[in-house]
């Protein structure tokens, strides 16, 4: 079973390990500490039997939010870790009055794009060389505060094992 809990400083080293595995330009310890200390941020960790298997973060700005990161350990992909993280991040954003959500995703990352489509996100533009050697697709979803969006989240949650 996947447990989603708030990120605490004592788990940052585990996130750094995953960052090194996944990204050519990983976040640093200081980046995580700065994000944890910043106002209007929510960072969550996904655990399976106490092991950190993923994490995600969101920045809340008035009625909009920006997903800063959603990462799953490579060996835990396809276990719906990212889906659970997205559900919790979006639920918390909605509780804070957020109505729109955005993020950037690597143009080549088809699996992540499929996940974000499932959450109603659609591409609206491209940030050239956002990832140094690769463009990012900018995706948005609006209407998080609508009954229709709540129904979407309920369906996604019901589809989880």
Question: How does this model look, in words?
Answer:
- It is a single chain.
- Strands 1-2-3-4-5-7-6 form a seven-stranded mixed β-sheet, sandwiched between helices.
- Strand 2 and strand 3 (51-61) form a beta hairpin.
- The protein has helices spanning 12-22, 29-37, 81-95, 110-118, 147-158, and strands at 2-6, 41-48, 51-61, 64-72, 100-106, 122-127, 136-142.
- Helix content is 35%, strand content 33%.
- It contains five helices and seven strands.
- The mean pLDDT is 95.
- It has 161 residues and is an alpha+beta fold.
Global morphology:
globular
Tell me the fraction of residues in β-strands, as a range.
25-35%
**What does the average pLDDT come to?**
95
> Looking across the biggest beta sheet, what order are the strands in?
1-2-3-4-5-7-6
Count all strands and give the number. 7
Round the Cα radius of gyration to an integer and report it.
15 Å
Distance between the termini: 9 Å
Compressed to H and E, one letter per element, the order equals EHHEEEHEHEEH
- Count of alpha/pi helices: 5
By oligomeric state, this entry counts as single chain
Give the low-pLDDT segments: none
Class derived from helix and strand content: alpha+beta
> What proportion of the residues is helical, as a percent range?
25-40%
């Amino acid at each position: 079973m996947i447990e989603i809990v708030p990120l605490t400083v004592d788990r940052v080293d585990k996130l750094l390990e995953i960052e090194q595995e996944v990204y050519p330009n990983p976040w640093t310890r200081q980046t995580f500490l700065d994000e944890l200390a910043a106002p209007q941020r929510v960072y969550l960790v996904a655990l399976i039997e106490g092991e950190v298997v993923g994490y995600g973060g969101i920045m809340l700005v008035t009625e909009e939010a920006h997903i800063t990161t959603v990462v799953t350990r490579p060996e835990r992909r396809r276990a719906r870790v990212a889906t659970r993280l997205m559900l919790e991040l979006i639920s918390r954003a909605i509780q804070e009055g957020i109505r729109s959500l955005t993020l950037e995703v690597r143009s080549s990352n088809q699996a992540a794009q499929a996940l974000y489509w499932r959450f109603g996100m659609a591409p609206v533009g491209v940030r050239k060389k956002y990832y140094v050697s690769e463009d990012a697709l900018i995706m948005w979803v609006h209407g998080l505060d609508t009954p229709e969006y709540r129904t979407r989240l309920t369906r996604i949650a019901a589809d989880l094992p």
